[in-house]
Amino acid sequence: MVHHYNYRPYWRSGTALRYYDAYLSGSGTVILNRGATAYFTIYLNADSGFRGNVSLCAIGLPANQVLPGTGFSPQSISVQANNVWYLSTLRVNTNSSTPRGTFKVRVDGRSGSRTMSTTVYLTIL
Q1: Closest CA relative to residue 10, chosen from 58, 65, 55, 47
Q2: What is the mean pLDDT of the chain?
Q3: Closest-CA residue to 68 (of 89, 37, 111, 108)
Q4: Before 74, cis peptide (omega within 30)?
């Protein structure tokens, strides 16, 4: 069987074979001083019938610190319609002990057994 380059998971409805998916993307790189707060916009778009709740988590924060106030708003995105951009804001708080450097932070969105990911970068001066 030959698949299109953009092949995705699918589900069957009657005799029709339907593709479905959801995509995450992030807002790039934030550069800040220790003690400041970084904000990333996380975008989610779905197509072809995907519906459901997508829970968000961040992996790879500096020194694996999760300081008070760090998190997503909203923490979970409820996909109700296709071809609509849903947004969540990832807030990352730092303090004087947050290590300096550039950190690759993977943002995962999970819905059932499906996981989608995007990467954002945090540079602490």
Answers
A1: 47
A2: 82
A3: 37
A4: yes
